[in-house]
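Archive record
______________

***
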Amino acid sequence: MSPETDSVIATVEAEVLALPGKLPDELRTELIAFRRDIHMHPELGNREFRTTAAIKARLEQAGLEPRVLPGGTGLICDIGTDGGTGAGTGDAAALPMLALRADIDALPIPDTKSVPYRSTVPDRAHACGHDVHTTVVLGAGLVLAELAREGRLPRPVRLLFQPAEEVLPGGAPDAVEAGVLHGVGRILALHCDPKVDVGRIGLRIGAITSACDRLEVSLDGAGGHTARPHLTTDLVTATAKVITEVPAVLSRRVDTRSGLAVTWGRVESGHACNVIPQHAELSGTVRCLDLPAWREAPDLVHAAVDEIATLHGAKSEINYVRGVPPVVNEESSVELLRRAMETRRGSYAVEGTEQSLGGEDFSWYLEHVPGAMARLGVRRVGDTARRDLHCGDFDVDEGAIEVGVELFTAAALLD
């Protein structure tokens, strides 16, 4: 790098280090209360009206101008643009925006925790940490808005609060169609990780989550008596062959490094022990860590199911439902997150992270702009219990909120 570039980097990093070591007590207390309020009032995908209203009200209180998405839930809010409150001017305002994305929906499962902020809605819970993601982006937005008013924000930032992440294919495609990426040059996100201690983040270049599609198969054939299977289509056997052999066939038609896997979750056929049924249904998921292989997956799966069903005399009907691509973290965006965290909290605060076979619709944004997702540590230091997402007892160390705000604020200054 040139001396001029080194000087600019040093100046920006000094700006990051000049930020308060901790959030002001008043803001930290407010953000924890905000998270708990959302946690107590979880809303499912595309029904997040209360959550959207709460975010909008707080941003407007800060003098910003949030815009609700066309579906009535979710919103975006720009900071440091010529047209917004707390605006930047000149060259900085004309730069591509950095987008910070949070998902705002909850899951249709009961909250089984015994805490004062337990869900008040039966069979609804923020068991994936979306309440934390939302609070982190809100908190970062409040800090960045103040920096913009002081003329200390080097490029504009867009806050994106997205609905319906938990509903295939996710709310991201609708958000993209609504224009949320217009003017955006990079997008960042984070996801709670109960296997990482609070105060740390996990990073990975390349695929960090899996593609996730839904597969539904119907098989039909001439039924009959179990005493004479040779006069029928032995549909139960045909179904069993599809279940066991489709994954095996695919493993020889796709590079094994792609991680393409078909896993069945439901099978149904027949009602009597001595009757060969005429109809069977099975469904499952298709997961994949490789983007090119994911794009080929529907044709490969159709061919494998058809071949095996035909071999056993059954007619197949396949419904392949696209879910989400893998989240493939772009290298320079990962390095931005690394620099941001290391500048704020030191190299100790960053660790590598493994690939997950879970799906995440943040991937749809990465089809259009570069970006990356970090894993945010939410495990209490010293906690040795095994915990996971999508469980009714999921909870976080709320110190993670401040860590996430620091991460995104620093990234916005360093980008």
